[in-house]
């Protein structure tokens, strides 16, 4: 008997659907397994800190690269496995893809270059999601938010996202700040030339400061030297590295170093060089002042050029001559300079006093907080002891009531025993009386018998 055609078609398509479903299910399971493995292997993006850290950054890069490669391989393998179900020759498809890919690459060169850039990023792992990256030209500075096949999103410091084509990363040098081990503190401190006789003591104090500071890395260099003596100031150069890489720790350590250097200089009677002193230093020793910003002299107008007498100096010579400074004006300028210096020193002293007061206030608040915590602990302990005493007193009262009841019962028993004892004494007396009477009767009978005999 011949099989109906529709049954043959149904059986054929059923086999196709069954084969296709099994392959798709296997591909979906593998894709799910890859995603689960990536989720468990990833540490996640650091939300609360400014950077992830070198080890976390490298691990996230490896997980991301392996995960993306595994996803692509699973999808590609699933598609290639499903093609024979539809009677499609894999060789023909691959050759067509090769020619089509060549044509597409010629038509869309930018997209292809960005895809190659994305693949390069995944393979070389210069950064990962959550890393703080910078470019040498300074155009890119922020945190990597996402990495796609075409572009990478970087969140800048002003919280505005920057979309960068992946091909750009193949053309610029990238700085991955997440993978740094230390942050550098680099300072150049200007000192007055008049204070050079005290520079040795100040340098020694600065070296002691950076050597004994708890937040500086002891494995890196900690240098403090007199680097240069210019026309207007001497430059102290300080270089050291912090232990932590978080921005908060770095700023705090840098502030401590700056305040420490300021205190060392003030303790030794030194101040910082300023531009105000530069301008006043241009006054020469003969009481004449020079221009603060020298420039080419300006000649007299043409209509007055012929009015000068013969043999008189030209207007250029007159303008080039330094003009005498009145002694009163010079004294006034010196007085104002001294007043400014005194005010500046007073401001620095006041700032130091305010910081000390703030520090003492913070210490006082810390002591008060600790005292409050101790009082709370003592209060809690006292309340606990009070509750224990109340429970003990309650138990003692109950025991006292029980003892009173037992005492009453014992008294009743004693009374009963006393009454019984009295009854026994009475019975004993009666028995003694009866026994004595019986004995007396017997004696009388025996006496009578004796008398009769």
UniProtKB/TrEMBL annotation:
<dbReference type="InterPro" id="IPR011066">
    <property type="entry name" value="MscS_channel_C_sf"/>
</dbReference>
<dbReference type="Pfam" id="PF00924">
    <property type="entry name" value="MS_channel_2nd"/>
</dbReference>
<keyword id="KW-0812">Transmembrane</keyword>
<dbReference type="InterPro" id="IPR023408">
    <property type="entry name" value="MscS_beta-dom_sf"/>
</dbReference>
<dbReference type="GO" id="GO:0055085">
    <property type="term" value="P:transmembrane transport"/>
</dbReference>
<keyword id="KW-0472">Membrane</keyword>
<dbReference type="InterPro" id="IPR010920">
    <property type="entry name" value="LSM_dom_sf"/>
</dbReference>
<dbReference type="InterPro" id="IPR006685">
    <property type="entry name" value="MscS_channel_2nd"/>
</dbReference>
<feature type="region of interest" description="Disordered">
    <location>
        <begin position="355"/>
        <end position="376"/>
    </location>
</feature>
<keyword id="KW-1003">Cell membrane</keyword>
<feature type="domain" description="Mechanosensitive ion channel MscS">
    <location>
        <begin position="111"/>
        <end position="179"/>
    </location>
</feature>
<dbReference type="GO" id="GO:0005886">
    <property type="term" value="C:plasma membrane"/>
</dbReference>
<keyword id="KW-1133">Transmembrane helix</keyword>
<protein>
    <recommendedName>
        <fullName>Mechanosensitive ion channel MscS domain-containing protein</fullName>
    </recommendedName>
</protein>
